[in-house]
Amino acid sequence: MEKITENQIVNLAHKVMAECALEIPVSKWAHRFHDLQVVHMKAKYGEATATGIVRISSLFVGTSAWKKLEQTLRHEFAHLAVGTDQHHNSRFKQCQSRFRGDKPVPQSEIEEIASNNRYKWQVIAHLEDGTTFDVGGVHRKTKRYSAYHEQPECKKRDWLTTVNKRVVRYEFQPN
Length: 175
Known about the structure:
By secondary structure, the chain is α+β, with helices and mostly antiparallel strands.
């Protein structure tokens, strides 16, 4: 399947917008669609603002997650139609359903987008026996790892259950 580009996101947004406008005329929307932006977002697929801007995560670019992209666009247009202050209440859900933004998406598309999300830091556990273990990636340094040595003995998560060994300290390595 063809990989998604920024231009294709823009083109699909206009197509989806036209379809949504057939369901609920734009003149009745709480916020008029003003602009589409493809931006880096680590934790969201998209967002809509009260000024009519729809932001779509750049994590879609280079993937084949077409169904998730379309679902996200329909979801964000539903926010514009009912008002961003409605959050995910029943009115929003009804609109999202009318816009067909509530259809299930293959898990493989979610995983493909997630694999596009590069973490800033890799967390390495230094174990009691002198070995190390790659815990995984994180976007920011959290106290769970950075203040591990400061925690009282009884509070430490001192066993890494995947390897059944005691953790001495954690280290952040830049990706």
